[in-house]
């Protein structure tokens, strides 16, 4: 059953998904074009198992969907507006002090 998430929940899910560099790379790749997991794993240079775990996280966050295609599933961004949001975030100017790191930068989390 699909429900509509609150604004805060949507932002929190998006933030958690973007907290991992591999998930960011997956989202950017899927924004460019839908893909099959095996192709994504090869393109990104990660194991299929690791990719599968990240895709599950992104599905649970509601950011990607798996569409059946014969015996395989093709993944794509769940909503085209997410792609535009990725573009906006990617090109945003962020004020970063070079001697500072994000406190949770090494924490791997999922939705």
From TrEMBL:
CDD domains: HTH_ARSR. Keywords: Cadmium, DNA-binding, Metal-binding, Transcription, Transcription regulation. Transmembrane segments: none annotated. PROSITE patterns: HTH_ARSR_2. One of its GO terms (molecular function) is lead ion binding. GO terms for biological process: response to cadmium ion; response to lead ion. Signal peptide: none annotated. It comes from the Bacteria. InterPro entries: ArsR-like_HTH (IPR011991), HTH_ArsR_DNA-bd_dom (IPR001845), HTH_Metal-responsive_Reg (IPR052543), WH-like_DNA-bd_sf (IPR036388), WH_DNA-bd_sf (IPR036390). Homodimer. NCBIfam families: HTH_metalloreg (NF033788). Metal-responsive transcriptional repressor for the cmt operon. Binding of cadmium or lead causes the repressor to dissociate from the DNA. This is HTH-type transcriptional regulator CmtR.
């Amino acid at each position: 059953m699909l429900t509509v998430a609150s604004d805060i929940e949507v932002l929190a899910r998006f933030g958690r998904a973007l907290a991992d560099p591999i998930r960011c790379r997956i989202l950017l790749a899927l924004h460019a074009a839908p893909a099959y997991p095996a192709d994504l794993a090869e393109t990104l240079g990660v194991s299929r198992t690791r990719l599968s775990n990240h895709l599950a996280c992104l599905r649970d966050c509601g950011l990607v969907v798996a569409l059946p295609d014969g015996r395989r599933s093709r993944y794509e961004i769940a909503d085209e507006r997410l792609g535009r949001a990725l573009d906006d975030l990617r090109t945003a100017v962020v004020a970063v002090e070079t001697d500072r790191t994000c406190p949770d930068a090494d924490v791997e989390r999922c939705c």
